[in-house]
Design a protein that fits this description.
The structure is a single chain. The strands form five sheets. Strands 11-10-9-8-5-2-1-12 form an eight-stranded parallel beta sheet. Strands 13-14-15-20-17 form a five-stranded antiparallel beta sheet, covered by helices on one side. It is built from 13 helices and 20 strands. By secondary structure, the chain is of the alpha/beta class. The protein has three domains: 352 residues, Glycosidases (TIM Barrel, Alpha-Beta Barrel), CATH 3.20.20.80; 60 residues, Oligo-1,6-glucosidase, domain 2 (Alpha-Beta Complex); 67 residues, Golgi alpha-mannosidase II (Immunoglobulin-like). The structure holds 1-deoxynojirimycin. 1-deoxynojirimycin binds next to loops.
């Protein structure tokens, strides 16, 4: 892996419609993001993942793209996007856009053309059967809506027809192979979209449902091959472009497909969920960072460590505090529990992502679905900058309502409190940026973890980090050598080869 800015990067995910509206009402805009770049930088984040900003009917909050090359008018214009890239670069920051390669909106011009009965350039851009009476067994498809004599495959919601990258093993005459002209044309069209934005100044892409391209590809090897080729072609022209995949399988995404990073996501029952979102365990949430769960970190480490080891020479396995699809990290966790969990995420050998608002402890709200959000809507509410935003949101003047609680946190309030979650994250990121040992590439080793103990100790370069998320003191015979605490939440010390941590503590020793 060649040295890149990623190794020191800390990302901030921005959901544009909810971030900042300079007018004080309506949806957020790109100018709003420009206005708040200094805030993001000051927190310690130097890179941004921006959810889709393209023209869209917004039936899936913009993941239903109507025009890949046009900024949605509600966010501003293409010129605003260019200005955003320039302003970010002036501050030494990078911006990844969200690329949606697996499907478009049903209102995309390609789909309108593809739906026509007459054969045209776009007839093979989507996956169609050859008769209105023939479906696609075992897969979601739509019939009866177009003049074309066929049904078409969906990639996600009803509004999102699947683009055609071919099938691994075409059996029906209407199924294309990966090498077919139509599959190649789809790849070229998506590369063209990437070139368009990279030429304008973006730094790369978070790739939506990166695993979903080739149909019938149960092992993902064929989809990986497609990405390898596409990313290779793009990097030949833009060697600095970065790609992060929504795949949750770094062995394929990073090692095979050539992504720079892959996300460890909240897929039911996996090791990431177990840190803060262990909703599926019988008998209630037994997340590692819940003080009363009393469990060890083993379930997380068992998945994270091998994945980290496997990809560390090729790229990164990235951890998120949450995203626009998850419940917020505040859901079910106290302020102190969140401090420990986020400190952990920010000190692992990954490129971390902070979801906007998580740094001030914004709450997950129980809301009705809006723009295809469903249960995700409650994590997409307006960034709580100050009381004026809270009031506007509560009066229904923003994209979604704001937290009605009297103690709803705001940037204005949290930045003034010396030991707020915000201040804790900011000071830890300052340390991360000043200590090479906390860069994503610095060595990582688990020094202590047991099935029967919540205590976890790990090494990052010349730093030793100890975590005790539980309600009780933790004591262990772990000799950390001649070290002293340099940063902590709570108290911990080493004495004669014994590590002593008070309840709910996170201590970095040097
Ligand atoms: C994953 C995105 O994160 C999600 O928000 C979206 O609804 C689906 N992909 C479909 O694009």
């Amino acid at each position: 892996m060649s040295e890149s800015w990623l190794k020191n990067a800390v990302f901030y995910e921005i959901y544009p419609q909810s971030f900042y509206s300079p007018e004080g009402e309506g949806v957020g805009t790109l100018q709003g993001i420009i206005d708040k770049l200094d805030y993001v930088k000051d927190l310690g984040c130097d890179a941004i993942w921006l959810n889709p900003i393209y023209d869209s009917p917004f039936k899936d909050a913009g993941y239903d793209v109507r025009d890949y090359k046009k900024v949605a008018s509600r966010y501003g214009s293409n010129d605003d996007a260019k200005k955003l890239f320039e302003e970010a670069h002036k501050r030494g920051m990078h911006i990844l856009l969200d690329l949606v390669p697996g499907h478009t909106s049903e209102e995309h011009e390609w789909f309108k053309q593809s739906s026509k009965p007459e054969t045209n350039e776009y007839s093979g851009r989507y996956i169609w059967t050859d008769s209105w009476f023939k479906g696609i067994p075992g897969r979601p498809y739509i019939g009866g809506e177009t003049e074309r004599n066929g049904t078409y495959l969906l990639n996600f919601f009803k509004c999102q027809p699947a683009l055609n990258y071919g099938w691994t093993d075409p059996k029906e005459s209407w199924q294309s192979s990966m090498d077919s002209e139509e599959a190649k044309a789809t790849r070229e069209a998506i590369k063209d979209v990437c070139f368009f934005w990279l030429e304008m100044g973006c730094d790369g892409f978070r790739v939506d449902m990166a695993d979903s391209l080739v149909k019938g590809d149960d092992t993902w090897h064929q989809t990986a091959a497609i990405w390898k080729e596409m990313i290779g072609d793009i990097k030949a022209k833009f060697p600095e472009a970065k790609f992060v995949s929504e795949w949750c399988c770094p062995y394929i995404a990073v090692n095979e497909a050539g992504f720079d990073m892959d996300f460890f996501l909240d897929h039911g029952g996996n090791g990431y969920n177990f840190l803060v979102r262990d909703y599926e365990t019988e008998g209630g949430d037994r997340s590692y960072f819940r003080a009363d769960s009393g469990v060890s970190c083993e379930k997380f480490l068992k998945e994270f460590v091998p994945a980290y080891e496997a990809v560390k020479d090729d790229g990164y396995f990235s951890l998120i505090t949450g995203n626009h699809d998850t419940t917020r990290i505040s859901y079910g966790l106290s302020d102190r529990e969140r401090k420990l969990a986020i400190s952990f995420i920010l000190t692992l050998p990954t490129v971390p992502f902070i979801y906007y608002g998580d740094e001030i402890g914004m709450k997950y709200l129980e809301l009705n679905s809006f723009e295809g959000g469903y249960t995700r809507t409650g994590s997409r509410t307006p960034m709580q900058w100050d009381d004026a935003v809270l009031t506007a949101g509560r009066e229904g003047k923003l994209y979604l309502p704001c937290d009605p609680a009297a103690d709803a946190p705001t940037v204005e309030s949290e930045t003034k409190i010396p030991d707020s979650l915000y201040s804790t994250i900011k000071s830890l990121l300052k340390l991360r940026h000043s200590e090479d040992s906390l860069s994503a590439d610095a060595p990582f080793e688990v020094l202590y973890s047991r099935e029967d103990s919540p205590l976890l100790v790990y090494r990052r370069g010349d730093l030793k980090i100890a975590v005790n998320p539980s309600n009780s003191d933790a004591l262990a015979d772990v000799d950390l050598g001649n070290v002293r605490p340099v940063w902590s939440v709570g108290e911990g010390k080493t004495e004669n080869g014994t590590l002593k941590l008070r309840p709910q503590t996170f201590v970095i020793f040097k």
